[in-house]
Design a protein that fits this description.
Four copies of one chain form a homotetramer.
Chain A lengths: L2 H11 L2 H6 L1 E7 L2 E7 L13 H20 L2 E10 L7 E11 L3 E12 L2 E14 L5
Antiparallel strand pairs in A: 1-2, 2-4, 3-6, 4-5, 5-6
Chain lengths: 137, 137, 137, 137
């Protein structure tokens, strides 16, 4: 495991909400991040699909990681998400990449897929702005 | 309690993820919905703020309720969210309204505020498209 | 006319593209901006409606003005727009306000209406991030 | 030239606003569209860059074409755009692709680059929803 991936895993482990959901960081390298989340009943909505808010959380977090991979300590300033289809399956995978980056901000995109019986289907696409957290003087 | 509010509360109660988080429906009337969420440590990120994914989930769900108040059974097709400041406090309140609606879709907006020692501060603004779920033939 | 409005009009006049389209600044005060645009055939698409790109341009520019009213010299970093209905009529009016602002950025929203035979109908809603342009050292 | 490309060019020619700006359709095939626009002074803002509204118009139109390539007669329902850097150069190129599509809607993305002395630099990224126009009964 690279130092960067290890560092990323530590940050994720320090997010109580990510621990509550069970998110895992699979890839974390310059310009790229992949988060995965095992689907369980608690994460669903009334029709048996994964709740959109879970999909959105995962995309948001993957965007932050992707941006953070080139900016350092970062937050998501804003993003938009298009839901392509209901999320059904045993696992969600959010793959985010940096589209463009400067010193203070990066524009990132993310695709969220659901793994259902070994087959991947895209469930959402996100795009947003990640901003470097400026250290306080 | 109105029938509509009661109906909305039943739907929320049938969402396992909303139950996991503890979301409550405070207002649900034509063109308007208000969701609240008591903040607890499990919902935070590594710096002690409410995780952005929680804010985003609440906005997304409030948008769906607002749209659903005029369309009937609905889903969020897409939305964008701008985080205005870190969410700190004891409670989140997401107030969503319908900006425009047709037969099949509504454009809705949402403001999320954090209640901190009795004072409200806006933490995020969202805007998105809510789509009516067509009954299957 | 206030000094601020006069200043805003000068900036608009110095934008060749805004001059090409015929945009006018009607209101420019702290936290608020209103742009108007007389509709003519050149601004339309193939079905006789105002081209979406014109609506979007006007929203984008109004967002920048709203943000600039509190930040100073500014640019639009990003925005999203929802088209509510086709734009038909003799005039477009874009009304933008600041939702939240810090030292470097503001989150703004904008409603675009079309004036058709004296009646206003909303044609689009936008929300975005306006960023202060940092003077070069 | 393919029939589809020829058809797309006819539509573009029938948009007065696109004719005013000088937009050209370079590629139009299932799932993909490329629009180009020669930069001239009339399309600029006060600092000598191409006006953001022009970049946004081009992205919007390319998104519509990409969606239309799989849906037929279509409109942009909504989109968001992130400006990556000021647009400088002699030509803009907007490349749009379909990320996901159903019977009535497609989610598309677009990258806008500026060609400056033969070198391409990305100036914006957009993502949005394209909706099929239902023929009237």
């Amino acid at each position: 495991m690279t130092d960067l991936l290890n560092f990323g895993k530590q940050i994720l482990a320090s997010q109580p909400f990510s621990a509550l959901l069970g998110t895992e960081l699979e890839t974390f390298e310059p310009g790229k991040a992949v988060l995965t989340l095992a689907v369980r009943d608690e994460l669903k909505q009334q029709h048996g699909f994964v709740h959109g808010g879970v999909v959105s959380y995962l995309a948001d977090n993957a965007l932050t990681y992707a941006g953070g991979s080139v900016l350092g300590d970062s937050v998501t300033s804003e993003y938009k998400i298009n839901y392509a289809r209901p999320a059904l399956g045993e696992k969600l995978i959010a793959r985010a990449t940096v589209l463009s980056s400067g010193k203070k901000q990066a524009v990132c995109q993310c695709e969220v897929v659901a793994l259902n019986n070994g087959e991947e289907r895209t469930v959402a696409f996100a795009q947003g702005t990640i901003s470097k957290v400026e250290p306080k003087a």
